[in-house]
Structure formats: C-alpha cells, structure tokens
Design brief:
The protein has about 210 residues and is α/β, with parallel strands linked by helices. Helix content is about 30%, strand content about 25%. Bound molecules: guanosine-5'-triphosphate and magnesium ion.
C-alpha cells in the first residue's frame, strides 16, 4: 500500500450526560472492547485512533472523553479549545438525557468555533439502541438534530457495536472537508491541538489519562 500524502491531527470532543455511554463508545471505536461495568469518568480521559482515510490520507484522531458531570464545572472551555468536531451523546432509554442535548450543544457553540466563526461539526448520538423499543427514538432524534443544527444524527450501540464506525466516519468526513475548505491543512495551530497544559499520568501510546 502506498504511503499517505496527507496527515491530519484532529481533536474530537465526546460530551453528554452521566452514564450515556461516552466512554463505552470510545472504547468500542478505539479498541473494539465493551464492559458492562460503569466507572464514571473523572474530568477528562483521552484516547487516540489512527484512521487510514481514502488512499492518501491518514487521520490521527484525539478523542476527548469529557465526564458527564463536567457540564456543571468550569473546565469545559479549556477542554474544548481547538476542537475540530464533537459528538453529543444521549441515552435512548432515558428521556432526560435527550432533554439535556440542547444544553451540551449550546455549551459547545458558545465556547468553540471554526476559524470562520461557524460551529464545529457535531453529530448527535442516540446510544443504547439495543435497549430502545424497536425503531423507538429515531424520529425524536432526527427532529432534535434538525432543530438544534447538528451535522447529522446516528442511533448507536456500544454494546452491540452498531453504527459507531459510521458515525465517526461521518464526522471525520466533515472535519476534513472543513480543513480543506479553509486551507488549514498547512496550519499547525489548527491541525495540532496543544496539549502542553496537561500532565500525563498512566500514559501509553494509544490511550492516556489526564489528571
Ligand atoms: P460518565 O463517564 O459518567 O460521563 O459516563 P459515560 O457516558 O462515559 O458512560 P459509560 O460509557 O461509562 O457507560 C455507562 C453504562 O452504560 C455502563 O454500564 C455501560 O456498560 C452501559 N452502556 C454503554 N453503552 C451501552 C450500550 O450501547 N447499550 C447498553 N445496553 N449499555 C451501554
Ligand atoms: Mg465516561
């Protein structure tokens, strides 16, 4: 296989209420694993996935797994800096988490934007479709997505590995399109999010935790 001509480094935020499955989605996408145990994320976790995109492009995704409880904290402005895209996750089995979606979208839109001032591409994820009644929630999710200006929406299951790759591909496609449109592929400030203000603890090359 020929070596890629272009390489992008993209910071992607994953936000949503407590327990909706943000960490599980990331674990499924990056490592193809799933756990029934719930361990609430504290602050932010961080994972990296390298994706071969089309023939000549490599995408290095930095996934920022932001704890549900952070919506009530003061750190999100710092976490959101220089993000290229986001997932807002809700739990299809818990209506309250759908109601919170607009708050997460507002929080993102008020604290991070593209260079041209437009909102960053953001996908609405209705997770745990394995426990939702058959077809349940799909129309609500689409209506909410349209009403709040999301780029797209997907029903997923981290447990059964449903639609997670599709949702991520949809986001990556839009991020690359934005970078190409703005000519920012040559601009390290955009392509390389700065991580210097964090201290690594139990870091490894694929998955690191911040403290
Ligand atoms: P915080 O870190 O507290 O913000 O939560 P989170 O959004 O990261 O949720 P997490 O991924 O830890 O998942 C919470 C619980 O939901 C765990 O018990 C998971 O096993 C379960 N879970 C996650 N995804 C799915 C899914 O697709 N289907 C089902 N049935 N359960 C899921
Ligand atoms: Mg978590």
């Amino acid at each position: 296989m020929s070596s890629p001509r272009r390489e992008y480094l993209c910071k992607v935020l994953v936000v949503g209420d407590l327990g909706v499955g943000k960490t599980s989605i990331i674990q499924r996408y990056v490592h193809n694993i799933y756990s029934h145990c719930y361990r609430a994320t504290i602050g932010v976790d961080f994972a990296v996935k390298i994706v071969r995109w089309e023939r000549d492009t490599m995408v290095r995704l930095q996934l920022w797994d932001i704890a549900g409880q952070e919506r009530f904290g003061h750190m999100t402005r710092l976490y959101y800096r220089q993000a290229a895209g986001a997932l807002v996750v809700c739990d299809l089995g818990r209506a309250a988490t759908l109601h919170s979606v607009h708050r997460w979208k507002e929080d993102l839109d008020s604290k991070v934007s593209l260079r041209n001032g437009n909102p960053i591409p953001t996908i609405l994820i209705g997770n745990k479709c394995d426990v939702a009644p058959s077809g349940g929630g799909s129309q609500d999710l689409e209506d909410l997505s349209r009403e709040l200006g999301f780029t797209d929406c997907h029903m997923t299951s981290a447990k059964e590995n449903v639609n997670i790759d599709d949702a991520m591909s949809c986001l990556i496609k839009q991020i690359i399109r934005n970078m190409e449109d703005s000519g920012s592929t040559d601009d390290p400030a955009i392509v390389k999010p700065s991580l210097h203000h964090f201290r690594y603890t139990d870091g490894c090359s694929q998955c690191c935790r911040f403290q």
